[in-house]
Every structure is written in C-alpha cells, then in structure tokens.
Recover the amino acids of this structure.
C-alpha cells in the first residue's frame, strides 16, 4: 500500500508543484493560513499549512477561509495595498507576466491570509466514545462547500476539565481529498458553532508554576516541570493554538522533551499509516515521605492557582494509539503511558508488561533505545486490556464501527 500511495502522491506533487523555466508566480501564505485546494483530474489536493505557493502561467488556485480573506497586492503605481474580501472562496490565476490576479481587477497579489483567528470551535451532537460531557470539535466549515475536522475533545464543562482529545494523523502536508474522513472523526459533526470565551477556562500559567517550584527547592529544580499543551504533535497542535487553554497540562520536562517527543517522531516516520490518537492524563503525582512522616502520609502534588483553585499534577500522560490501516497484529492498537513524576520507581509500577518492542514502527528508533531510561522520561507500551481500568477517563478500545473507513460523509466535500 505504501509504494502505491508514494507513487501516486509523487506524480501529483510533481505535476502540481513543478517549476517551469518559462515563468512562475509566487504567493506568500500568512497566518491563519487558508485551506488551499488544487485540482488534478478527478482528484483534489489539499495543501495544509504551506507558507508559499508557486504556480506556472495560467494555473489557478482555490483558497478557502470561513470568514473571508485579507490580501496584499501592488497597484498600478507599485504601491502595496491591503484589502479584505468577504467570501469563503478565493480563486486566483497566475498570469503570463508572473503575477497572481483576482477577478475583481486586483493584480499582482503577493500575500493572503484568513480573517478568522484560526479554526472554529463546534459542538457535535454525535459524541466521542464514553464521553458523558460535551464533544467539542475544532474544524472549519464552508457553507455550500464542505468542512474539515482537525480534532475532537471530550470536555466536562461543569468541572472545566478535559477528559481526552482525539485526532487522526496525516503523514504528509499534501493530502488527496477522499470521499470519507479516515478514522475516528468520520461521524463527528460540526453541528453548533461555539463562541470561545477564553476567560471561562482557568488554567495554570508559567509564572504560577515557577512560583511553586521556587518554594519547593528541596524537591524540584526550576525546570523540573513545564506548562504545555497535551498535544505535542506539531502537525496537530498548529490547528489548536487558539484553544490551548483547553489542553494545558503540567509536564515533567524530561518526558515532554524526551521520550514523548521520540515516540511522536517515530509515529510520524511511519510513512503510509494513519493513526487514530486519543490523549489524556491520569492520577496525581505523589510527593515522597520525609523522616518522621507516616508511611501513609504521602501528599498529592496540587498547585494553588491565583483564583484559589488547586490543580493536580498528573502522574501519567497516556496516548491510545490505533492504526487505521489494520495489519491484523497486536500492534494495531495499544496504549503509550508516560510517567510524569520525578519520583517514579520502576519497582512500584504495576501498570503492565511493556510491549514496545512488539510494535514494528517503534523498533530501531531513538524511542526504542531510550524509553526505559527515566532521564528521558520513562514510557511504557501497554495492551488496552491491561490498563483500560487503571487510567482516568480512558474511553475503552476502538469499536468496530469506528474502524470502518469506507463510509461517505459531507466532511470532506470541498
């Protein structure tokens, strides 16, 4: 499957992006970036988060923004002008003198970006598995054109707590638009737009964490923990910047920058495979007992926020990994668990017998060599049945209906 996809993608990319000595047009893509669509016969290519587009003479491009466009161009006097276009679709053509032009007489367009701050937040009436709270979806909806879904969150609004977040990876910035959306977001809808109010969601700031660590110098250094998004996959997190407060957690820094990063890179290097990923946290870090303290006197690590709320530091960060393209082996679905405590002791861990070496795309990687070393963040790979009942908010195994990748939905009809 990989070889066929690689050949098809290579042909498409070469055909669409090829440079011609006779002349090309260049267009800078600003942030937030429009969705860029190019036609190739009966297929449509989606270019995700590109920073520059190049096209040959007479080629056209279609760009999509939910709320309109901001464009910069040069007028007839060579002055740079900025203007807005209230449309969800913008079509531009590379003219014979190497300029992108727009139908309303705007010539020599040099840059374009969306007016909105980023993908929008929606509520889905179809819920994520075992989600008793709201199912929130980050995506883009274009009236009469289609929609794109980047990720879905199971969120307990009463407790202002994220239960877990789910997304499906893509292994290339250039995608062939299918008739179905691969993976777990296929049946999730963009039903009700939500006006995101950042002030509703209290989370820990870097200054609050730094103040706590400064008071506990006997136990921690200033960089033992770091505030960061639960989503550390850069290809996914770039669509979630606006909603980072919904995803903020406190990381053991050696885990975040070490083995968690290593397994994410190994997954990205597994070309030809899409993965359904669910992420969550579990438990609370326990502080060690001191001399004269009762053996049962261990304290949970909770940090008081400015508003008086206490935030528990999670003991574990988990990732439920499911290969969309099934191989029929035990590596199709498993759970990666990062130990988020500097006080972790391997002799006290009873989570599971680790099976990282049984996952083919993890073998012979930096992760495979370092995942058992606490200096890089101790990580285990577990079978779902071994840990489903041990992890907070774990949604359970992927159901058979969620593995069906052949259903048709409006989600990709752009």
């Amino acid at each position: 499957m990989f070889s066929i996809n690689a050949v098809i993608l290579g042909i498409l990319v070469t055909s669409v992006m090829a440079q011609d000595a006779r002349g090309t047009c260049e267009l800078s893509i600003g942030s937030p970036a429009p969705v860029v669509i190019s036609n190739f016969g009966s297929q449509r290519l989606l270019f995700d988060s590109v920073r520059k587009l190049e096209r040959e003479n007479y080629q056209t491009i279609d760009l999509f923004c939910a709320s309109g466009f901001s464009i910069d161009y040069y007028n007839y006097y060579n002055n740079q002008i900025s203007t807005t276009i209230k449309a969800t679709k913008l079509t531009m053509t590379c003219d014979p003198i190497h300029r992108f032009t727009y139908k309303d007489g705007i010539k020599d367009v040099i840059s374009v970006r969306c007016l909105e701050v980023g993908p929008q937040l929606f509520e889905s009436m179809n819920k994520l598995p075992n989600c008793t709270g709201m199912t929130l979806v980050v995506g883009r909806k274009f009236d009469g054109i289609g929609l794109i879904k980047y990720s879905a969150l199971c969120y307990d609004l009463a407790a202002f707590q994220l239960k877990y977040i789910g997304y499906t990876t893509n292994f290339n910035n250039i995608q062939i638009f299918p008739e179905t959306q691969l993976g777990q977001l296929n049946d999730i809808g963009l039903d009700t737009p939500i006006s995101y109010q950042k002030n509703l969601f209290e989370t820990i700031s870097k200054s609050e964490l730094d103040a706590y660590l400064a008071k506990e110098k006997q136990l921690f250094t200033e960089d033992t923990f770091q505030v960061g998004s639960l989503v550390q996959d850069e290809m996914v997190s770039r669509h979630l910047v606006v909603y980072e407060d919904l995803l903020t957690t406190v990381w053991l820094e050696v885990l975040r920058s070490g083995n968690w990063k290593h397994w994410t890179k190994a997954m990205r290097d597994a070309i030809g495979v899409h993965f359904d990923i669910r992420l969550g946290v579990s438990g609370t870090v326990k502080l060690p007992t001191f001399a004269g303290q009762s053996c049962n006197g261990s304290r949970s690590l909770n940090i008081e926020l400015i508003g008086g709320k206490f935030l528990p530091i999670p003991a574990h960060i988990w990732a439920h990994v499911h290969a969309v393209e099934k191989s029929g082996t035990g590596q199709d679905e498993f759970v990666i668990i990062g130990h988020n405590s500097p006080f972790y002791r391997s002799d006290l861990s009873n989570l599971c017998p680790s099976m990282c070496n049984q996952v083919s795309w993890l073998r012979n990687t930096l992760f495979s060599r370092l995942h058992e070393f606490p200096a890089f963040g101790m990580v285990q790979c577990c079978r779902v049945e071994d840990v489903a009942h041990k992890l907070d908010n774990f949604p359970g195994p992927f159901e058979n209906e969620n593995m069906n990748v052949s259903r048709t939905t409006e989600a990709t009809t752009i």
